[in-house]
Write a structure and sequence with these properties.
With 675 residues, the protein is α/β, with parallel strands linked by helices. It is built from 13 helices and 23 strands. The chain is globular and about 70 Å long.
């Protein structure tokens, strides 16, 4: 716990940084002094780690022969965090050190209730044996099957490693429309087929065991579980079995399932639909027979590999897939895109901000997921949501890249787990920030024709990372007394509770609201982290990943026009391969941009978050002021808590308007992977 009070700091702005020349000096041989250590208010666990890193740095400097002072090359100074090299990627640095360098306040600014503000109530219940598990790492990403051949998916891509680690051992699913239309796996270097029908501009992508091994190395480094997909439209059970065998050899137990096809209910959509891969003879009976043949072929080579199907949004197809013989072990896969009316029908399902934050949209989510859960329960199989986003409409619209989509995604990720979905992967793309699918949580630099290797997170990606920071536990009853405020709670083994509150009021018209939280046990302290932005159409500065470095070679800012923490970073060039660096992590976002606590990655670990103002130790309720258009994660520590919550938990092992498209070049959709 922090022991020295400091004046509050407005979120998104850092306090004055230490003297940069002092932070880059080597420690004296007599040992580290207090002035050379990272921020004095680090919690004990973080402070010990920071001291250790500084001691090791000093030992390295003092051990062995001293360098010749006449040598022409000066030692490489550290970056803005003592003991950490310049341009260090986030995945290589303890997040607590980065947060300490941000100099976050003791008390969360704006959390104190104000007289005269509107009020709301949230009531927490007690856990019971029937409550659902909350699986740390169950939130993940979905990519196209053809992305397996993308050389950027490898363990030395610093930004991708940082992103996957920010999701804390996530699920990475490969599937999408490319699976049955452009994905060709071969282990014998066969030529790419020439007889497959393709839409204009499309091409078939060949994937080999070498590709699987490369992606597997990334999965091992980041603790990621993987779901692959087999091409069902080009009927070939033996090829699917070969894919499964090579995938098991590459991924080992990190391969948690093989999907058979993608959305078979859409294989035939009518005679003129360009997405057709089957003729009018295609139906559920044929599908069930082929699913069984695939499963049996796969299990002959890889016994007990979980079969995942149908990846559909239609009840009858769930029943057929779950009831197909020979598929056990099996997981029922649901796909959901609530606002995918891209034409003029069904006004409430059009991708607008109004619909994104409307309670009716959340009600439709509940209805569909509940039906899928009932089907899964009937067949005694787990429910996985292997593809989802707020909309699948191509191109930019009111909700793409926005705060509205981010708050929706945060709420959705909790909502579906409360409804028993064990895994949920948001459909994504490796495409560029400018021109690629704008609903993707992540995006790269470069262009559509030549994407780069630097990656950033959009607003919905920050939302996923915030939710993924919640440690494992048990979903606990939580009731909000307003339809524009949602509440989901997770109880942890240490006695603490994470409470996720999403406020769906319009940031442009509403003001802060005092929310009183009633708890079943006496409260000791409450900490806070918050996703917010200036308006529903505010965006996160992910596009900075795509912007070239300035003429001086200094790193691009985490927020447009935001000042650097000090002048030292401008004196050396940024690493052209890394966007998610420590230097960029210390640059606050613009006041109106989407951020978590005023920054991007890393998310502040639960143990290091500022406290909610005015919480009385021993009381069974507390009040917090919540701005509109936010998702807030409160960590509630009780009087009987055994320990403070940590940054991570043990994995379960199973878990402004968007810019217009360039004239004549339609923006891609995440469902096509931008291909």
């Amino acid at each position: 716990m922090r022991t020295s009070p400091r004046p509050p700091v407005t979120p998104g702005r850092t306090a004055p940084s230490p003297n940069p020349s002092r932070s880059s000096q080597a420690p004296a041989c007599s040992g580290p002094s207090a002035s050379s250590l990272p921020h004095r208010t680090l919690p004990v666990r973080r402070r010990a780690l920071a001291i250790l890193s500084t001691v090791l740095l000093g030992a390295t400097a003092c051990a062995g022969p001293q360098p010749d002072p006449s040598a022409s090359s000066a030692p490489e100074p550290t970056g803005p965090v003592p003991g950490v090299a310049r341009n260090a990627p986030l995945h290589a640095v303890d997040p607590g050190l980065v947060v300490a360098a941000r100099d976050i306040p003791e008390t969360y600014p704006g959390s104190a209730p104000r007289d005269g503000d509107p009020t709301a109530r949230v009531t927490l219940g007690r856990t019971s044996p029937g409550d659902e598990d909350y699986r740390h790492g169950s939130v993940g990403l979905s990519l196209e099957s053809t992305d397996l051949a993308d050389p950027r998916l490898e363990e030395d891509n610093h930004d991708l490693v940082s992103i996957l680690q920010s999701l804390h051992e996530p699920t990475l699913r490969f599937g999408g429309n490319s699976t049955d239309r452009r994905f060709f796996f071969t282990s014998t270097d066969e030529p790419i087929p020439t007889e497959w029908p393709l839409a204009k501009g499309e091409k078939i992508t060949k994937v080999t065991p070498t590709d699987l091994e490369r992606v597997a190395a990334l999965a091992r480094r980041t603790g990621t579980s993987v779901i692959l997909s087999a091409n069902l439209a080009r009927y070939d059970p033996d090829r699917a079995a070969d894919l499964a065998a090579h995938a098991r050899a590459a991924f080992g137990d990190r391969l948690v399932g093989l999907m058979i096809g993608n959305e078979p209910n859409g294989f035939h959509r009518g005679s003129d639909d360009p997405l057709n891969v089957k003729g009018p003879e295609w139906n559920r009976t044929v599908y069930a027979r082929q699913l069984t043949a695939y499963a049996r072929a796969v299990h002959r080579k890889v016994p007990h590999l979980r079969i995942v199907a149908p990846g559909a949004y239609s009840d009858p197809w769930w029943e057929v897939a779950a009831g197909a013989p020979g598929t056990a072990p099996f997981a029922l896969a649901l796909h959901q895109y609530p606002l995918s009316e891209c034409g003029t029908r069904w006004t409430r399902q059009k991708p607008t901000v109004t619909n994104a934050v409307a309670p009716q949209t959340r009600e439709r989510v509940d209805a569909l997921v509940s039906r899928a859960r009932s089907a899964a329960d009937e067949h005694r199989v787990p429910l996985w949501i292997t593809e989802t986003s707020l909309s699948s409409c191509p191109g930019g619209n009111q909700i793409t890249e926005t705060l509205a989509a981010a708050v929706y995604h945060a709420d959705y990720s909790m909502r579906v787990q409360a409804l028993a979905a064990e895994r949920v992967t948001a459909h994504s793309s490796l495409g560029p920030c400018h021109g690629g699918p704008p609903m993707s949580p992540l995006c790269s630099d470069g262009t559509v024709g030549s994407p780069g290797e630097r990656f950033g997170l959009r607003a919905n990606g920050l939302a996923l990372a915030l939710i993924a920071s919640i440690p494992q536990g048990t979903m606990t009853p939580a009731r909000a007394g307003s339809e524009d405020l949602t509440a989901f709670a997770v109880s942890h083994p240490d006695g603490s509770t994470s409470l996720v509150l999403s406020d769906f009021r319009d940031p442009a018209t509403a003001g802060p609201r005092t929310t009183t939280v009633r708890t079943p046990a006496a409260v000791q302290r409450v900490t806070q982290s918050q996703l917010r932005g200036g308006s529903w159409r505010a965006t996160a500065p992910a596009g900075d990943a795509a912007d070239p470095h300035g003429a001086s070679g200094s790193p691009s800012a985490q927020g447009t026009g935001a000042p650097a923490p000090d002048d030292a970073a401008a004196s050396y060039p940024a690493d052209p391969r890394v966007h998610l660096s420590v230097e960029n992590a210390l640059r606050p976002a613009d006041d109106d941009a989407v951020s978590v606590d005023g920054y991007g990655l890393p998310i502040t670990p639960p143990a290091d978050r500022p406290e909610v103002a005015g919480v009385r130790s021993g009381a069974t309720s507390f009040a917090v002021s919540l701005p509109p258009g936010t998702t807030t994660v409160l960590t509630i520590e009780t009087k009987h808590a055994t320990a403070r919550p940590s940054a991570t938990a043990s994995p379960s092992g199973d878990g402004t308007p968007a810019p217009k498209a360039t004239s004549g070049t339609p923006r891609a959709t995440t469902r096509s992977g931008g291909q």
